[in-house]
Fold these 2 entries.
Entry 1:
Amino acid sequence: MKDQNKQPIGIICLGNDITENKKYFANIQQQEYMLSAIYQSTSEASTFVDKDLIIRYNNQVAKQITKQVFGKEAETGDNLLDYFLPEYQTEFREIFEKH
């Protein structure tokens, strides 16, 4: 705050208690860690995609399989169809869009 002569006469402090937010995000982080541990410990390939077929998560088994078949690991952000043989892409997309 300043007076008429623009000299400082005080300060204004605003704050928010972020304790609940920190607890909430710590809980989410713990759940993500546990879910990741489950998917990484399985012997089955697991891949999660969004509605646009963009990979949002895949476990190490899925990465190993795509590397063996396609020469590179499927990564988060890749399009799932890049890991389908061309002759199966259209059929898969049609089935996926129905569900």
Note: The helical segments are 19-41, 60-70, 86-98.
Entry 2:
Amino acid sequence: MKRVIDNKLEQELLDAMYKFHSLLKDGFMSQSKINMKVDIPKFTYSDLNHHKELRVALECLKNNYREYLKFLREKDYLPLLKVLYFYEDCEECIPVVLNLSLNEFLESDFYISRDELKK
């Protein structure tokens, strides 16, 4: 699921997070270190409207990156990865963090909707 926000700066931040998420997925699939460089737009806290959502998304990415590094170091490590569950019909809702196994993570997007959970 692709999250779309009216604020251009916040959308650029989310797009950078999506890109980092896809780089993490590529790293898990290749089981090797890859370049994780992502361009992030400059911003100030006052420029943002969805503070909590962006903070939760960033915490998920930080957790997933730590799990990725452990996965590379330890051969039999099974990571517990996080994605965001989001109610599509509620614009102002804060997403909820979902824990996923590696296989579930590789099949999912960064944001998961109600329809995707039913699969």
Note: The first strand starts at residue 81 and ends at 85.
